[in-house]
Backbone:
């Protein structure tokens, strides 16, 4: 029995569960989606909040440039390139998207090399700003460079930051927290890669390893932080600061698309394919995109076949009250950044009428896609980062979804698809070679 019901009862009410429990790749397009003008109110945040987050990151750019030499060239702005991938698209054969295919290279963001640099850095910086203002180190319009001075480091050294992570969020929180001088602890789940733990420890971060999965690591980290009044816990399941930090990506994407001559409107729809773990990163980005582009943008979330947490939560309406393990799924996947058994209830509920669809992808498929991307575009990603690639094919294969959006062949041909690459540039070469070998096998 699963939550008092038989599996047959669950499948009768929610047919996609049959494919999910069997580990088959599947897609589900959300019938609850409504116009953005109506659904954005579900989030509890708006454009003013997003602009405030953007302004905070701009305000801290000089400090980031001082703290991290690799950000000097951009003046402390953390941003990734948007690139065309025509050879990869062509090599997908029957699964090639109708329209143009682009890749957003958050995989190559400076310092921590993943999408988590956006939200993670933002939350740590906001915490630092809050403490510094309370201590009188900076005023409302004060110079943020003061936070690199000894007085600020002494202040931050009396405070702690903790986070639970499968890897990439811990990397971004840990590196930023430690560089500012916070006592920083990262609780790493069983899926976390050894090289990520080593990089954190080399930066002076305390790494606590857990034999259990992401949920257990978060729970212990949250409990330990609650016992320390000076500790700030970064909660990927519930944090609105993380969410807003991720959402700033939409404002940065807008001029990039314009510079490439990409129109986004009803006749030129934009489809964004986002790898999804607990949901904070893709949820924040989708929220920002809906604020910017409204009903002209359509977001799809991609999850491993072993970890379809968000799909299960939204499909059933149970959100964080259900976990993949409840349905006999292992939550074991090579896509470590997506190895989450229970989704964010905050994101699931807030975005339940804004995200067009969800699909799953098997590890073997991820490896094949990684190898294909390397051969065609010379781009190296980690498995979780390529999860969005099957999204365009699911759209083509679903006539009901296309009819709902009035996606005629002409409109599909004018569409743009963005694969959001979430990590990979810092993967050690021997590990990357293993990924690529698995994909060529």
Residues:
């Amino acid at each position: 029995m699963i939550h008092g019901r038989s599996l047959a009862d669950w499948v009768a009410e929610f047919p996609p569960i049959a494919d999910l429990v069997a580990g088959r790749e599947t897609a589900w397009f959300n019938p609850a989606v409504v116009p953005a003008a109506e659904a954005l109110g579900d989030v509890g945040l708006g454009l003013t909040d997003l602009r405030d987050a953007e302004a905070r990151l701009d305000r801290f750019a000089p400090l980031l440039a001082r703290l991290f030499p690799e950000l000097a060239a951009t003046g402390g702005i953390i941003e990734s390139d948007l690139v065309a991938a025509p050879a990869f698209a062509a090599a997908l054969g029957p699964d090639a998207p109708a329209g143009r295919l682009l890749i957003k290279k958050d995989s190559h963001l400076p310092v921590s090399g993943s999408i988590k640099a956006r939200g993670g850095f933002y939350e740590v910086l906001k915490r630092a700003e809050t403490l510094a203002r309370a201590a009188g180190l900076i005023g409302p319009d004060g110079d943020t460079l003061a936070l690199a001075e000894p007085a600020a480091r002494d202040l931050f050294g009396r405070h702690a930051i903790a986070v639970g992570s499968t890897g990439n969020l811990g990397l971004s929180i840990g590196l930023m927290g430690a560089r500012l001088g916070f006592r920083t602890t990262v609780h790493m789940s069983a899926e976390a890669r050894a090289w990520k733990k080593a990089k954190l420890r080399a930066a002076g971060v305390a790494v606590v390893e857990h034999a259990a999965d992401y949920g257990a690591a978060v729970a212990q980290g949250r409990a330990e932080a609650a016992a320390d009044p000076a500790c700030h816990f970064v909660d990927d399941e519930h944090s609105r600061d993380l969410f807003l930090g991720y959402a700033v990506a939409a404002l940065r994407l807008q001029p990039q698309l314009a510079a490439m001559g990409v129109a986004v409107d009803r006749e030129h729809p934009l489809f964004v394919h986002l790898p999804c773990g607990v949901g904070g990163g893709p949820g924040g980005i989708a929220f920002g995109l809906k604020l910017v582009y409204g009903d002209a943008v359509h977001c799809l979330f991609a999850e491993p076949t072993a970890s379809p947490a968000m799909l299960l939560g939204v499909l059933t309406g149970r959100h964080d009250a259900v976990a993949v393990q409840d349905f006999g799924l292992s939550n074991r996947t090579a896509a470590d950044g997506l190895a989450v058994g229970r989704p964010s209830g905050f994101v699931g509920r807030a975005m339940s009428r804004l995200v067009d669809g969800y699909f799953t992808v098997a590890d073997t498929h991820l490896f094949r896609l990684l190898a294909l991307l390397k051969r065609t575009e010379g781009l190296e990603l980690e498995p979780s980062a390529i999860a969005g690639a099957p999204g365009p094919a699911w759209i083509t294969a679903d006539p009901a979804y296309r009819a709902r959006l009035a996606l005629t062949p002409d409109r599909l041909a004018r569409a743009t698809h963005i694969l959001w690459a979430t990590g990979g540039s810092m993967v050690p070469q021997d590990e990357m070679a293993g990924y690529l070998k698995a994909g060529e096998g």
About this structure: The first strand starts at residue 27 and ends at 29.
